């Protein structure tokens, strides 16, 4: 009998000293999937049928051996694969699980509860105990994972050698002078459960696999991230010289909003773009736009608040909204309409909980530049439903083909708008980390939100001061990026070549980008039998050494798109497009 009165012979469970590691668990998981002919997407679908939720990135981490799941997830996966949990944990053989239908349903319910944060089992001295006669299996947390957030602090545990076996009390004669000695069980620390549904595949599992291949000597062509410097794009000389001259004056913190000179230049630039009611106190510099997006989501969203974000999106928006406790709701952009937002879909998805809407214009990953008519339609929707507008305009100086960029805030003087931009792309200085946000329009509507922004801005003290020191020169001097995006320029010509090369591949179509560095081609999923875009990305990586970002990484709902960065020089792009065409000639996803 154990300490809770259950016969030990009737308790089927994995020992705390299970030999499982993340790598060995992944190996056994893949073996179990192979036995049943299942893919990662099947695990996600079958988990959903059992009332539980597994994210794509979450499953990928388990399959690639990056992390060990919690016990509820182990139980769920063993039910799906119809094998004993002990096999997944490195004990025993892949025998078909003896769990009865009723017990399996109960286990699935328990798994669903833990996976969705409902009725989660608190960390304690003993694992869950299955009543005598039950064939269900109780699984303690595997080594390397612990409950993300215990409901209460665990009760102190003591060595049995320190326990009076007759009274179950501590033997005071051998008490440790500093108190009760803890047991030999080692507490480990897992990532926060808040990250379970966070996705950032621009630097995700496929990128991790590319790094592994590189470590083994493979050459990988990285078409996954818009980082100009590795492809030979240089920062304007006058910008570098300005920073060198000002470095001695940049050793201390600046105002939390930023240097006066930087904010003054940003304010004047915003005024030229037609943003209404702009003032110095509504301008904030950041370590790139990324930091400021995260800051705004934390300042605005309460648990359950909804925010409209485009699909496809730049995934940081969805990730930051999720981490802040909000609920991202994705409205569709229409590929047949040059990837402009579908206004009917946008309005259809507004609920009483919707607080704000996001536009990314020019768009990443599609390269779309929204027309003034579309922007006016978005403003009308925001006006009708009293929504705040966030406008990500980091690529506003990289428009091609005479496309005119219009800032949505210039069309909405009566609404509360926050506009984001920066120098990372327009001045090829992504590593300098300098971006900004400008508050405009009816600021009274967001006065309390701005108190939160001020607090968070003060908490991080300030953004990179040397990078701030170049903003005035960068915005006021010669805009060398214009040479890149004009006919004959590198970005312009490389965009044209990649667009034509992709559309020449049987089964691939692409809308011509009007701005930025990206193109978002569509694959004929029937022709290529594609049902898992992450698997497609891995297959392309393994067969051709080409690293791209799958469409699902941008929260696109179908496995039929991927993003290519067309920053490499023309010779490299030609080789890449030839390899890509060769790949699709024979590719059929298993």
Automatic annotation (TrEMBL):
Stored PANTHER family: GLUTAMATE-PYRUVATE AMINOTRANSFERASE ALAA
GO molecular function, one term: DNA binding
Biological classification of the source: Bacteria, Bacillati, Actinomycetota, Coriobacteriia, Coriobacteriales
Enzyme Commission number, as recorded: 2.6.1.2
Keyword DNA repair part of the UniProt annotation: no
Top-tier EC class: transferase
Similarity field: Belongs to the class-I pyridoxal-phosphate-dependent aminotransferase family.
Cofactors (names): pyridoxal 5'-phosphate
Ranges where the HTH cro/C1-type domain occurs: 56-88
Organism: Collinsella stercoris DSM 13279
Protein name as annotated: alanine transaminase
Keyword Transferase listed: yes
Domain of life: Bacteria
InterPro entries linked to this entry: Ala_Aminotransferase (IPR051926), Aminotransferase_I/II_large (IPR004839), Cro/C1-type_HTH (IPR001387), Lambda_DNA-bd_dom_sf (IPR010982), PyrdxlP-dep_Trfase (IPR015424), PyrdxlP-dep_Trfase_major (IPR015421), PyrdxlP-dep_Trfase_small (IPR015422)
Record key words, sorted: Aminotransferase, Pyridoxal phosphate, Transferase
